[in-house]
Amino acid sequence: SAKLIKKIGLSGNSFAIDYELENTGIRRIQTNEYCHNFIAINASNIDEHYTLRVPCEIIKPSSMVEAVNPENAVILHKNAVHFNNTPEKDFFFSPLTEFQSANGEWEITHDGMGIGMKESTDFVPEMMNLWGCKHVLSPELFIGIDLDPGQKLKWRRTYKFYYLLTDRQL
């Protein structure tokens, strides 16, 4: 009842994933899609050197449906997430933030290695969740899907990798 086409394009220090979803069935499709972005910069455990930024959005713990932070290793700020130590147990925040008008974006940096990466979208996400554990972070931007029979939806996710505080490109 659905046809999904994914195209991955590489360009320098970035890559993009283009999606096209077509409802080929007879019923409406109402769901969402997101990527598990399992990230560990150079296989480094999550620690105080990592920062997750959500530009132009506000992280509101009071509006979260679920907040799991058993060791208090995760520190939430207005538009950033920091770590005070390496979490031994899984952590999860849903929604971490909601996007009101801007296309989705997050950025993870590791100040010890001077490396960063960013995901940006060409859609306004329904929400953003964050899951992680000792060895990985997974920020997840959700796109809402509502397609009548015969309709198509196209969207794009772009990932960029870079050095911090330098003009060098990876």
Structure description:
- The structure is a single chain.
- Strands 1-2-13-10-9-4-7-6 form an eight-stranded antiparallel beta sheet, with no helix packed on it. A five-stranded antiparallel beta sheet has the order 3-12-11-8-5, with no helix packed on it.
- With 170 residues, the chain is an all-beta fold.
- The chain contains no helices and 13 strands.
- Which structural class should the secondary elements be placed in? mainly beta
Low-confidence stretches: none
Number of helices: 0
The rounded distance between the terminal residues' Cα atoms is 41 Å
Return Rg in Å: 17 Å
Q: What's the count of strands? A: 13
Strand order of the largest sheet: 1-2-13-10-9-4-7-6
Percentage of residues in strands: over 45%
Q: Helix coverage percent of residues?
A: under 10%
Described by strand count, sense and barrel closure, the largest sheet is: 8 strands, antiparallel
- Rounded average pLDDT: 94
Spatial shape = globular
In short:
This protein has 170 residues and is mainly beta.
What key phrases describe this protein's structure?
8-stranded antiparallel beta sheet, 5-stranded antiparallel beta sheet, mainly beta, 170 residues, 53% strand
Describe the secondary structure blueprint for this structure.
Elements: E1 2-11, E2 14-23, E3 29-33, E4 50-53, E5 66-68, E6 74-76, E7 80-83, E8 91-97, E9 105-110, E10 115-121, E11 127-133, E12 136-147, E13 152-163
Antiparallel strand pairs: 1-2, 2-13, 3-12, 4-7, 4-9, 5-8, 6-7, 8-11, 9-10, 10-13, 11-12
